[in-house]
Amino acid sequence: MEAGFSEMRNELQSRDALWRRIQLECKQLHTELLKISEYKDMQEIQIKHQSSCVQLTEQLENKNTELLLLAQSQEHQREELNKIRNHLYREEQSHRSEQERMKTEISDLTEELHQKEITIATIMEKASLLERQLKMELEIKDKLLAKQQLLDFRYRVIKSENTHLKEMV
Length: 169
Prior knowledge:
Blueprint: H1 2-168
């Protein structure tokens, strides 16, 4: 029996060792399975990340294209703005020149008007003086004419008296 017991013990120890090896292998297989599962999950995550990376790359390229277009548009707008500024500057210069020309012309016309006013005032003064002289000359001529008429009348009267006296003589 002891031999049977010993055999059984050996058998049990052998089975126990086998069981432990099986458990160890199971643990190792389980660990490998976990690693494989983690690897598979990581591969799926990597695939998702690659897909996401491709999408982000496409979006980045689209944004770069948009930025390039915006930069070109901004450059075009800057050029247009510079053209407008240059045109506005030229218009302002032209306007200033025109204003200066008009100021000079107004000043010249004002001076000319002032000179004409002086001339007119001088002419009016001379005209007034001539008018007074003419009135005085007319008065003198009227007086002379009246004297002439009076003398003429007296002359005719005297002539008539002379003629009458001659006839009487």
